[in-house]
TrEMBL record:
SUPFAM superfamilies referenced in this protein's UniProt entry, alphabetically: NAD(P)-binding Rossmann-fold domains
Organism: Mucilaginibacter gilvus
InterPro entries the UniProt entry points to: Epimerase_deHydtase, NAD(P)-bd_dom_sf, NAD(P)-dependent_oxidoreduct
Domain NAD-dependent epimerase/dehydratase, residue spans: 2-225
A cellular component annotation (GO) from this entry: cytoplasm
Single GO MF annotation: aldehyde dehydrogenase (NAD+) activity
Pfam families, per database record: Epimerase
Protein name: NAD-dependent epimerase/dehydratase family protein
Length: 322
């Protein structure tokens, strides 16, 4: 039996669907308050849903009964300052519980991390899996939670866990809706006027799922892989999305001081309304930074070729304009 944690999320749902399309009957965890994603509704006979929060070790142990493979996609993501400490504690502790159980039961794991947990390269060089984040210099709660969760997996590997870690860049796809990376498309659709100087990696959600499955089936263990299709300047991405949506491309450069004002204003508004800020300090500053990622390790390991990013952008925009 295959278990997918976090299957109600963007990546987890796509991964579950890909596994089903390959002929598998799977088990998926969800919270009792979670809504089953629309893309998984056509497959009720292929999915055994179980209520199991990662913080409930007893429910996790029950969910792992008869399981031989685990894809761990579960994580709490929040930009709220008040959520920083509990988010780190939840993501790290929950991963630790799962690692301990998989180690004890001899279950193979593919763990989903993020490039947020990967360090910086020297200027002019691509970021690789060998670049390690310095936690003493990091203030972003999400990055810290992903790094420390990875450390739990590495601890498990040292204790005999059979596992691989993936570090995707920004994941895009039509099923994201207007949440997460879907906000990029929605913001452009509403009329984005500014762009930033930064560059970042992007990847199709289906490619991430396919890479995870290929790694699970490869027998490779004790490795981490950056999953990235292309590195693109934000301005180029915004312009291409705007073109596909028939909207004006952003034409004004947002200077770093403007981004500082933006995140500070968003923080105040978040405090007043109780909603998540549209942008936080980390993402505002990252928008003007060039981070380019090397995908040669994953391509060599499983012989994978990524879908051109322009095809994914066109697909997402087509869904938004229907």
């Amino acid at each position: 039996m295959i278990l997918v944690t976090g299957a109600t999320g963007f990546l987890g749902a796509e991964l579950a669907k890909e596994l089903i399309l390959r002929g598998n009957t799977i088990r998926c965890t969800k919270r009792d308050t979670s809504t089953i994603p629309e893309i998984l509704l056509p497959y009720p006979a292929k999915i055994e849903w179980v209520d199991a929060d990662l913080m409930d070790s007893f429910a996790l142990e029950a969910a792992l009964d008869g399981v031989t493979q685990v894809y761990n996609c579960a994580a709490w993501v929040s930009l709220k300052a008040a959520d920083k400490a509990p988010m780190i504690r939840t993501n790290v502790t929950g991963t630790g519980y799962l690692v301990d159980l998989c180690t004890e039961k001899g279950i193979r794991m593919v763990h989903t991390s993020s490039v947020a947990a990967v360090g910086e390269a020297k200027p002019g060089e691509l970021i690789t899996e060998n670049n390690h984040l310095d936690p003493s210099l990091e203030s972003d709660g999400y990055a810290i939670s992903k790094l420390e969760s990875e450390m739990e997996v590495w601890r498990g590997i040292a204790e005999g866990l059979d596992a691989v870690i993936v570090n995707p860049t920004i994941i895009i796809g039509p099923s994201a809706g207007v949440e997460g990376s879907g906000q990029i498309f929605e913001t452009v659709r509403k009329g984005l006027k500014f762009y930033t100087k930064g560059t970042i990696g992007f990847v199709d959600v289906q490619d991430v799922a396919k890479c995870m499955i290929a790694l699970m089936e490869s027998g490779i263990s004790a490795e981490r892989y950056i999953i990235n299709a292309e590195n693109r300047p934000y301005q180029q991405i915004f312009t291409e999305i705007a073109d596909k949506l028939g909207k004006p491309a952003p034409a004004k450069l947002a200077q770093p001081w403007m981004m500082e004002l933006a995140w500070r204003g968003a923080s105040v508004w978040s405090t007043l309304t109780g909603n998540s800020p549209a942008i936080d300090k980390t993402s505002a500053r990252a928008a003007s930074v060039i981070r380019e990622f090397d995908n040669s390790k994953i391509k060599k390991a499983i012989g994978f070729e990524f879908r051109p990013l322009s095809e994914t952008i066109a697909e997402v925009c087509q869904v938004l304009t229907q």
